[in-house]
């Protein structure tokens, strides 16, 4: 048997909460974070705003990082980096890995981000395009670059091994976690800080997403009739992954197993989902984990709430699992935390693992009624579950798919 | 818009990430750990907030925090 991968630490930030405990408490109670949101347009002095549903991060708790790191060392961070650092610190603390020698050169940092530091770049653009100025802040690039979260985490925790950010739009962090798992399996490292971050609720980013025509005007209603589309959220979710025997030997608490990963590319369309590509990723993940298709599982769907995604995903699930799908439980947590783009896969895998541990499925929110095109066994109310396995789906624009498989321990 | 000395100090504290109470006007920028990049960040924040561009050369001769604040206040008030 090859090296197995244990999850020994988890941290997250989203509209739902400032840490894992708060996030779980809200989502399992059906208390979603999507609300009416507005951002000022122009120079911010007029009353003109862009409005719509979104799940912004209203509160971020920096107590942990303030206690650990000198503010001068941290520097000024884009929200993209701030979310990632806060979540990573929670995860590393839970794993009791601060100052541990494994961080020095046997740990990788692998994060997924869909876009970079939107807020930082937009401040620069405002100066140039709106105010006619000719200079941008000298820290614009280092603060806003998409790889800044990996650099900052490596700097703060003293990690000298491989560190990078990986991008595959809405599947970025699922790919990052899966590839980190393979780095551990391959023996390149013994541990990894893996997950994702996204801070896309800035005016320019939000309007660009809205202009795609894929956004809901009301709210996110995965697999429901009359669903209109997706709703943006923001935040980060980060894991500490460790080689199983290494974690056991140092007495770490194992929270779950990262047992499989399947990735595929549709090679078909830049926005539309493709059933064949989705199926390929799910089948590959099961093959990697050695998990039979008829083993009952908690399926954390990609479930964006767009007409096309949900119908295509439901079709793919029926094709892969057949009659056995009836024994599975399908959740769609974007209905509570919105679409975190690059950070979605990580947050959904995290919530799925907690659900296995707590034996509770968080409810799919905002569901108005069944859509015959989306006939999957949804948990529409908080439900007790007894599954040992988690299948967590992420399907990105541009046809980049990643599926993670987790196991309860 | 005429900012107060306190408003300028708040901007310096924010940009240089130093507690406001540690910002003694008698102290030199160097002893406070305010590096040239922090000075640039403060000037950018002043420009973004008050629309006043203060050339870096103008603060090159300032040694203490108090002198630095004086130059900023003079430029912003004259605008």
From TrEMBL, chain A:
Name the PROSITE patterns on file: KS3_1 (PS00606), KS3_2 (PS52004)
Membership in a protein family: Belongs to the thiolase-like superfamily. Beta-ketoacyl-ACP synthases family.
According to UniProt, the name of this protein is Nodulation protein E
Family matches, as SMART domains: PKS_KS (SM00825)
Q: What does this protein do?
A: Proposed to synthesize NOD factor fatty acyl chain. Involved in the synthesis of a highly unsaturated fatty acid moiety, which forms part of a lipo-oligosaccharide that is responsible for host specificity.
Keyword Protein transport assigned to the entry: answer is no
Cross-referenced Gene3D superfamilies: 3.40.47.10
The lineage, from the top, is:
Bacteria, Pseudomonadati, Pseudomonadota, Alphaproteobacteria, Sphingomonadales
**PANTHER family hit by this protein:** 3-OXOACYL-[ACYL-CARRIER-PROTEIN] SYNTHASE, POLYKETIDE SYNTHASE-RELATED
Subcellular locations according to the entry: Cell inner membrane
Q: Assign the protein's first listed, main location to one coarse class.
A: membrane
UniProtKB/TrEMBL annotation, chain B:
GO MF annotation: an example? acyl carrier activity
Which controlled-vocabulary keywords does the entry list?
Answer: Phosphopantetheine, Phosphoprotein
Q: Which Pfam families does this UniProt record tie to the protein?
A: PP-binding
Q: Which processes are annotated in GO (biological process)?
A: lipid A biosynthetic process
Task: Return the protein name.
Answer: Acyl carrier protein
InterPro entries tied to this protein: ACP, ACP-like_sf, PP-bd_ACP
Q: Name one GO cellular component term.
A: cytosol
Please name the source species. Answer: Sphingomonas chungangi
Q: Which residues form the Carrier domain?
A: 2-76
Q: Which PANTHER family match?
A: ACYL CARRIER PROTEIN (PTHR20863), CARRIER DOMAIN-CONTAINING PROTEIN (PTHR20863:SF76)
